[in-house]
Write a structure and sequence with these properties.
Strands 11, 14, 15, 16, 17, 18, 19, 20, 21 and 22 form a 10-stranded antiparallel β-sheet that branches. Strands 6-5-8-9 form a 4-stranded antiparallel β-sheet, with no helix packed on it. The chain has 2 domains: 198 residues, Distorted Sandwich (Glucose Permease (Domain IIA)); 76 residues, Immunoglobulin-like, CATH 2.60.40. It contains 3 helices and 23 strands. It starts with a helix and ends with a strand. It is mostly beta strands.
């Protein structure tokens, strides 16, 4: 095993173990027809599995891609409410629909008043730059690989202190900001960042306005990781990376107040909680 892979596996339990408080979530198993689903049926949750009996699957009318052995992954957004319809089409031609109830979560909401306007709204001279960068990000996220790197056991991408979690939100000068969709891992600039699962690099940028050094890795079938605020970006677009391979280092680039890695995960346009992909049922909270 390469040293980088060994170190990455050592990272596996470190960030969550350091948190002083945590929300506890237990993976559920749901038997639907001839298959069993195992995962987190909550806001921000994710379900990963495999069934050789399936020909097709849709979630609320959206295709859930299937791998060659029936591998699948799907997730739920931060503010999902009520239930969603999962439709299963079997290889023998039978089909059935099931209702999945999505449990709510509580999120940390912070109100901050008296900030200078430029810290709340970007100055006009950078709006064109932000628009160009958002177009690059959008193009990267629209790409979809047919591989199944998402199906293995995931690892933490870096070692450090959990300083921010999925779903939290700030209201600045009375204006609600976008919720935080990642898990923040704080450590000194230069701390190694590795791939939490294998995949193909879709975006590698050293200096985006909001996120600074930014990498997007496609893990297959609509699941992508994004890594923000990196001091160094050590991969290139279309490069294949393996789990545990170094991709860069923690930094304080973009609009941040300190060195940390912001790790986010998307299933297509749905932003899910990255910590649900790790092999533990405790979602770490900030210290």
């Amino acid at each position: 095993m390469r040293l980088s892979v060994l170190l990455a596996f050592l990272f596996l339990s470190l960030p969550a173990a350091e948190a002083q408080h945590a929300q506890h979530f237990t993976a559920q198993t749901k038997k639907l027809g001839a298959i069993k689903l195992n995962g987190y049926f909550v806001q921000g949750g994710v379900v990963v599995g495999r069934s050789g009996k399936l020909k097709a699957m849709t979630l609320d009318g959206r295709e859930v891609p299937l791998g060659p052995k029936g591998e699948y992954v799907f997730g739920f957004s931060r503010d999902e409410k009520g239930s969603q319809v999962l439709t299963l089409v079997y290889k023998d031609g039978k089909f059935e629909s099931h209702s999945l109830e999505i449990a709510p979560r509580s999120y940390d909401i912070q109100r901050i008043e008296g900030l200078p306007p430029k810290q709340v709204t970007p100055p006009p001279e950078v709006l064109a730059r932000i628009k160009r960068e958002n177009a690059k990000i959008g193009k990267a996220r629209r790409q979809r690989g047919d591989w199944q790197d998402f199906a293995g056991i995931w690892i933490w991408p870096a070692h450090g202190r959990i300083s921010g979690v999925y779903g939290s939100q700030r209201i600045l000068n009375g204006q609600p900001r976008r919720p935080h969709f990642g898990v923040d891992i704080a450590n000194s600039t230069g701390t190694p960042v590795v791939a939490p699962a294998g995949g193909v690099v879709r975006l590698a940028e050293e200096d985006l306005y909001y996120s600074g050094g930014t990498i997007i890795i496609d893990h297959g079938q609509g699941l992508q990781s994004t890594f923000l605020h990196m001091a160094s970006v050590e991969v290139a677009p279309n490069q294949r990376v393996e789990q545990g391979e170094r991709i860069g280092s923690i930094g304080a680039t973009g609009r941040v107040t300190g060195a940390h890695l912001d790790w986010r995960v998307n299933w297509f346009a749905r932003r899910i909680d990255a910590q649900f992909l790790l092999p533990r049922a405790i979602i770490a909270s900030p210290q």
